[in-house]
Write a structure and sequence with these properties.
Order of helices and strands: HHHHEEHH
Strand order of the largest sheet: 1-2
Distance between the termini: 13 Å
Shape: globular
Largest sheet: 2 strands, antiparallel
Number of strands: 2
Length: 183
Amino acid sequence: MTRSRAEDPNVCGVTAAIAVIDGKWKTILLWLLESAPRRPGELLRRLPGLTEKVLTQTLREMESDGLVHREVYDGRPLKTVYSLTDFGRDLSEALAPLSDWGHRRLEKLARETPSGKATSGLTPSGNATSGLTPSGNATSGETSAGEIPPGEVPSGEGPSGEVPSGDWPSGKTEAQAGPLPVS
């Protein structure tokens, strides 16, 4: 989908919205910024498959779409912090029902498997079986300390000691939310 579709007044509203969140990292960046403003280094640490170049490009697109605010503080070194704008929060709230629908779909798919075994790394209850406990700790030696496998929901304490407040406004916590889709 092209970026121009996000600005075309003759396109369906859903298509215009999807054009704004289209991409591998935008939904998870929205999700992370919803709980607290974050510095780019923290975002990179929480999303191990994301490069600095792609993060910068994605945040600039989100800023030009009015979803995030970039604040640069004077000092040495310069400190940059990204936060959601009111418009970005509106989008995050609008995505909550879509997130709930996605979880219900995954649970339905898990129940429909022929052998009764869950697919896509989900148990029949919809919980992830990726090797992370609900607190975000690895249960096997597959991930290094602090690393989150691609497609997995970050959880647990952040570098500053804060515990993120949760998932989309649906009220689900990060541990209950399961993995976010990463395309």
